[in-house]
Amino acid sequence: ALPIWYMWDDTKDILEGLPPPGVEVFCIYGTGIPTPESFIFDENFPAGKAIDILYADGDDTVHTRSMELCKRWHKQQREKVHVIELEQVEHLNIVFNNRSLSIINEILQGEYGLNEILV
Prior knowledge:
Blueprint: H1 2-11, E1 25-31, E2 33-40, E3 52-58, H2 64-67, E4 81-87, H3 98-108
């Protein structure tokens, strides 16, 4: 398991301190689907398969905790940050999903959020 520790140690801070982009951002991602978050290996690693998999909320490819990184930017930049979570939309299907395509169309036409009721 030592090589995994080196990989983890090498990448654990990769997104730490990631600055906001300084432009309006639209984060669109799926949620509500069990998604692999951690893989447990025995002493046969790397030749053996995972002996257990821990799941968390996500889009069947990326877990929500990673995808919602852009939520941090709300308080870190003046430009708007839009976080759009699509319940039960899988990662690979987001570009085919009618709801996400409508949202993208509204964004491209400058119409996204025009019908929102702000409280």
